[in-house]
Amino acid sequence: MCCEFLEAEKIILIDLATHYKDVIENKRSDMITCKKKDKYWKVIEKEESTEFVSKVKSQISVVGENNIFNSDQSGFNLETHAGRTLVLKGSLKVECLAQSLNSLTHSYTIQPIISASGELKSPLLIVLQESNGKFDPVVEKTLYKANNIVALASKSGKLTSDIAAKWFAEVFLPIAGENSVLLLDSWTGQTKSKFDNIDTGNRNVNIITIPPGTTGLIQSLDVYAFRLHIVQLHIVQLHTEKCAPFVCTPFVCTRNDAHRSIAHRSFAHEKLRTVRLYTVQTYAIRRISF
């Protein structure tokens, strides 16, 4: 019985091979293609984006541009570096200098707040990576204190739902007006239900979730503003590297990565709040057509 079954299976395979000979002989890469998204999904995303922008415009007419806020997260390495360097042609080994090798692989997260009028709000939340999820007493005691920075810690260096709730209560609510609108992406750690138990006092905060897959089109921080954060941080770090042999400031005279990151971010954040860069940040708002 077993031999008959194997023989029948062999005949079927031979028939299939003969019938689909051309398909079998072709390379797999010639037969299979992978497309990220087709036109159908792009049309849906565009429609959702248009509806969302229209919804926000109606809110602007009610509460005003200064009371429409967008906040999002972005990760940064403790020390930024360029992907290129100068070296003699034909060199097999390229050597570079860094303040800390740990800073090139470990990262932290910031969560800025920007209004629909283009104003970058202060303070800025920064979440640093600590092995036990909190600052060591010695580190916390010597940590650089900045009025425009709220520094917290997590094991991953990223936001958690608890940190998001703390950000909403301690960072966002103090700068929000009596009636305001907060635009957030669809991350489950910062949905409206996560903030229901937080006392907002006499403030009425309407949290609107940006449709998934559309943040690159209609979220002001993703569209352009985060690019300014990257550029300004890089400028600050380059400036401190040049001044390191001559001056001693919290920006350069420390081997503590957390201390240096807060100092760099504090200065970069304040630069972004200047009038000159304030006008540049409104470009992101104009691109979305708010």
Number of domains: 1
SS summary, helix count = 11
CATH architecture: 2-Layer Sandwich
Pairing-aware structural class of the strands and helices?
Answer: alpha/beta
Descriptive overview:
By secondary structure, the protein is α/β, with parallel strands linked by helices. The protein has a single domain, classed as Nucleotidyltransferase, domain 5 (2-Layer Sandwich). Helices cover 47% and strands 14% of the residues. The protein is built from eleven helices and eight strands. It has a four-stranded mixed sheet with strand order 4-1-7-8. The radius of gyration is 26 Å and the shape is globular. About 3% of the residues have low confidence.
At a glance:
Residues 5-47 form the Myb/SANT-like DNA-binding domain. By secondary structure, the chain is of the alpha/beta class.
What are the SSEs and their pairings?
Elements: H1 2-19, H2 21-25, H3 28-31, H4 39-63, E1 68-71, E2 74-77, H5 101-105, E3 107-111, E4 113-115, E5 124-129, H6 137-142, E6 149-154, H7 161-175, E7 179-184, E8 204-209, H8 215-218, H9 220-243, H10 257-272, H11 275-288
Parallel strand pairs: 1-7, 5-6, 7-8
Antiparallel strand pairs: 1-4, 2-3, 3-5
